[in-house]
Amino acid sequence: MASVSLQTVVPPLESDKLSILDSAVAGYDREQLLWSSGYLAGIATLQASERQAAAQPAAMAAASVWSIFYATETGNSRRVAAALAERSRESGLTVELYDIRDYRPKALAKLDNALFVIATHGIGEAPNGSELFFEYWFAKKAPRLENLNYSILALGDSSYADFCEIGKRFDNRLQELGAKAVADRVDCDLDFDSFAAAWSEQVVGYAAAQTDTVIPNSTPYLRPVNQVVAITREQPFKAEILTKQRITGHGSTKDVRHIELSLEGSGLSYLPGDSLGVVPQNPPELAEALLDLLKLDGAEEVVVDGKSIALSDALTRRKEITGLNRPFLEAVASDHGKLQEIVEDRDKLTELFKTWQLIDIVARYPRAWQAQAFVDSLRKLTPRLYSIASSLDANPEEAHLTVGVVCYTQFGRPHWGAASSYLIGGAEEVPIYIEPNHHFRLPVDGDTPIIMIGAGTGVAPYRAFVEHRKEHGHKGDNWLIFGDRNLSSDFLYQLEWLRYRKEGLLNRIDAAFSRDQSQKVYVQTRITQQAKQIYAWLERGAHIYVCGDAERMAVDVNQALHAVLQSAGGLNDEGAAQYLSEMKAARRYQRDVY
Ligand SMILES: Cc1cc2nc3c(=O)[nH]c(=O)nc-3n(C[C@H](O)[C@H](O)[C@H](O)COP(=O)(O)OP(=O)(O)OC[C@H]3O[C@@H](n4cnc5c(N)ncnc54)[C@H](O)[C@@H]3O)c2cc1C
Ligand SMILES: Cc1cc2nc3c(=O)[nH]c(=O)nc-3n(C[C@H](O)[C@H](O)[C@H](O)COP(=O)(O)O)c2cc1C
């Protein structure tokens, strides 16, 4: 099979070896093929390093240090980088692992070897907190990096027009500055595991070949799993759902749920600011509707991750069927000129990703899919994160969430979100794990004032913050600026906030309900209106938090804060930008946006 599409390239294998390879990988899905390519690259590098070690056993230089950097917001890059560090150490390499946020940008100029795992967030932007590092290196006056050997694994989501933008820009910039890429950058979609594994093998192989290290003669991904049973994204804990209460009123256009999960027996703990990952299942009704449209039988066997399972199982438990992915769209577009036009137009494509689901494409742009090809064209079903809305100290062995339910009708069909519908559906337990967020934390000093800005479900972590401060008797002032659509139906946790206000725990509360009057009012409007007070709080050392919508709210709030520093603080444009940058560097301006 592989040779059919690769026949234009002259293979370095004789035809009998090529056909053995073809039959060995027959039936592999895309992910397995990618993994296998990394595995073979690892063997090639191992052989090279063994040859090198044999040729110069004593004369080789001492092992050089490799610095591994990650730029993350939701933890994926950290996990990949940590696994890479572990793998490198097992291979006898000397490595150091850094969160880019904690690294002095200039210090990179002193390094010889660096590996980067870089996520893109916002709209083609650097992850929160890492902006200063990238600003330094993107600046015109950045120093040359001629001594640096590097490689980049870029993490992203192909449904964004600026796919893996920061990884790509940083790669270009390092080349401009004279650094040498020792392995090509790899751009990963949300199903990054196999790409990350293949890249890691390649770079470890390269690094080992530069030293007198020999990679252990075992396949890293066939190692026995760790004996300690930790609760992770890969091995989640089944948490009982205790409550899934609707907290938006009847007249609301939105269904927001307060969800309480039991952590009993898990040993899990978390801090205010952390998120909780939910490993979802797709709505069975949606899988059935897809099967109907595709005219495929759910009982048909397909291969996923090397195992044969029923197609209906693949669609409910293994593959993303709510969102779209770029390779799938491109495959369909090759048969449909109209869709091809959309795929080639950046704005239209962005809009399509936001508003269309897989089923809309399958219905509107029919194609004769074979079961296996359809499954192979879809991404692996990935967990969703939710900001934890409770303090563990106030609610032992529980985690609370504030979940906006994705459920709407479009083109005459019901549409659902995978995780939100799973949480509020019939399941009594859901697989979960904790995703720490070290960059959305209450001040260490409980006397420090805080300003919490959030819209909609963005209020969730503030419930945790205030519960925590109450539980620990922290005396710092608390100011909540909350926004949503209507006061009567969308004031999430209204009674709790009003009680805290009465108790004096919440010193100020400013709410903005955009649809209660003809003129739209948002949280940023309140910030502008309260400019003097905001500035006074900032000058008292207040920490600012922003949570909720990344695309509009977080951008507008940033602009409003910038304007406050000019109007109330008397700073010019540059001074205001500098003030905010310094706040970020001092971790006094933190964001948890999505
Ligand atoms: C760090 C972090 C914290 C988060 N915290 C929270 C939180 O506290 N509360 C919370 O509710 N969410 C939170 N989220 C978002 C959450 O992770 C999910 O993305 C969200 O719940 C949707 O997931 P889903 O599986 O239900 O929908 P998905 O299965 O991901 O479906 C979403 C798809 O549906 C379509 N779609 C969705 N809405 C619409 C619409 N209105 N119109 C048209 N099409 C639409 C789009 O195609 C979209 O791709 C957070 C995200 C991050 C990264
Ligand atoms: C709010 C938000 C914005 C994002 N913006 C982009 C983007 O512009 N381009 C892109 O390729 N990926 C984007 N992504 C996808 C992330 O890069 C992807 O989820 C990645 O795996 C996250 O890695 P991390 O967990 O290390 O932060 C975005 C994700 C979120 C939650």
Short characterization:
This protein is α/β, with parallel strands linked by helices.
List the helices and strands and how they pair.
Layout: H1 2-6, H2 15-25, H3 30-55, E1 65-71, H4 76-90, E2 94-99, E3 113-119, H5 131-138, E4 149-155, H6 165-176, E5 180-181, E6 186-188, H7 193-209, E7 237-246, E8 256-262, E9 275-278, H8 284-294, E10 301-304, E11 307-310, H9 311-318, H10 326-333, H11 337-343, H12 346-355, H13 358-364, H14 371-376, E12 384-387, E13 398-404, E14 407-410, E15 413-416, H15 418-424, E16 429-435, E17 450-455, H16 460-471, E18 478-484, H17 487-490, H18 494-503, E19 508-513, H19 523-529, H20 531-539, E20 543-548, H21 553-567, H22 573-585, E21 589-593
Helix pairs in contact: 3-7, 4-7, 10-11, 19-21, 20-21, 21-22
The chain binds flavin-adenine dinucleotide (FAD) and flavin mononucleotide.
Query: Number of DSSP helices?
Result: 22
Oligomer designation: single chain
Shape: globular
Largest sheet: 6 strands, parallel
Secondary-structure class: alpha/beta
Bound molecules: flavin-adenine dinucleotide, flavin mononucleotide
Q: Helix content range of the residues, please?
A: 25-40%
Provide the β-strand percentage band.
Answer: 15-25%
**What is the C-alpha radius of gyration, as a whole number of Å?**
26 Å
- How would you state the average pLDDT, rounded? 91
Distance between the termini: 41 Å
Tell me how many strands there are.
Answer: 21
